Structures are given as C-alpha cells and as structure tokens.
Amino acid sequence: LNEVSKKFGDARRTKVLNIIDSEEEEEEEVPVMLRIVDNTISFTKKKLSGQIIETTNLDTLIGFSADGKMYKAKVKEIPEGKGIKFASLFKVSNIIKVYSLGEINQKPFLYFSTKLGYIKKSNVSDYNYGGRSGTKTLKLRPDDVVTDILLTDETKGIWYKILNGHSSSARKIV
C-alpha cells in the first residue's frame, strides 16, 4: 500500500471553500391556519367561512385541478397579511380543491367525481407527493372534468347528489 501511495499519490488539489455547520439552525415548525375563499388562500387566526386548513408553516399544500392533475406548493410561499390566488400559488388556473400534506396523510382515501358522473376511489398511498407538480392523478375522457374531490377515512357514508334534468336523487356509495 505504501508503494502505491508513493507511486500514484500527490498533494490534494481540491480546496474546501465552505464547511457547512451541521448544527445550522433549522426553521422552527409553527402551527398555522389557512382559509380558502373564492380560489384565494390566506392566513387566518379565526375559523371563518370557507375551507379551513390547520397545518404548519413547513407543510406542503397539494392542489388538485379539474383536468385530473396534482400540483404542490409550500405553505411558506403564501405571503403574510394578504391572500394569494390559486393560479399564482400553484402556477395553474384550474385548481378545484386544496389539502395540506398533513391532512392527506391522516385520511387514506380520495374520491374524485367528474362532470359525466364517474366516481373514482383512490388510496392516498398511490400518489408520490415528493414528485414533481403536474402529476396525473386520474385518466379522464376528452370531454370530462373533475368536479369535486373528497378526502375521507370512510368512517361515515358518502352521498353524491346526481342531477338529471329537473329531478334529483342521492346515492350512498360507501
């Protein structure tokens, strides 16, 4: 080994410029409450009207679009003091439902309902949330769009209202 070291060894040519301190301060996790009204998401301190998401400042938001794709954005990208439109946050204009990754990990099923009346049940574990934004979550027919998405643990029944002309009926699917 000494022979090889003498024959092929030379002085180190790489200079270490920055040594990263392993005890570097990490951002503190703080609970936050988000309010969604009219495709705008903002921080709130009170549970007012609209969809309320209780999460943390380090969480990721998952937005589902009408064309069946999934997009993600960090909570810390939301500006303090004012709301931000879905189109600006997720870089796409047709987001119909938003959940936090924390919420999604607590409930195992997603139900997608479409304009043509199809309902798809998916396991949350089927989706890779660490992947890129714009991942296809379900395959749609060319003339169909997602109208609603429901996150559930199936402890209660799920009712969908089906409209046909002037009559309507409700059907329990769980």
Task: Describe this structure as you would to a colleague.
The protein is mainly beta and 174 residues long. It has helices at 2-8, 86-90, 101-106; strands at 31-37, 40-44, 51-56, 60-65, 69-74, 84-85, 95-100, 109-114, 119-123, 135-136, 146-152, 159-164, 167-172. The protein has a 4-stranded antiparallel sheet. A 4-stranded antiparallel sheet has the order 7-4-5-10. Strand 4 (60-65) and strand 5 form a beta hairpin.
Rg from Cα: 24 Å
Q: Pick out the low-confidence regions.
A: 165-171
Strand order of the largest sheet: 3-1-2-6
Content of β-strand? 35-45%
Distance between the termini: 70 Å
**Order of secondary-structure elements:** HEEEEEEHEHEEEEEE
Helix content: 10-25%
What gross morphology would you assign? extended
Q: What does the main sheet amount to?
A: 4 strands, antiparallel
The SS-based structural class is mainly beta
Outline of this structure?
Helix content is 10%, strand content 40%. The chain is mainly beta and 174 residues long.
What order do the helices and strands come in, and which of them pair?
Layout: H1 2-8, E1 31-37, E2 40-44, E3 51-56, E4 60-65, E5 69-74, E6 84-85, H2 86-90, E7 95-100, H3 101-106, E8 109-114, E9 119-123, E10 135-136, E11 146-152, E12 159-164, E13 167-172
Antiparallel strand pairs: 1-2, 1-3, 2-6, 4-5, 4-7, 5-10, 8-9, 8-11, 12-13
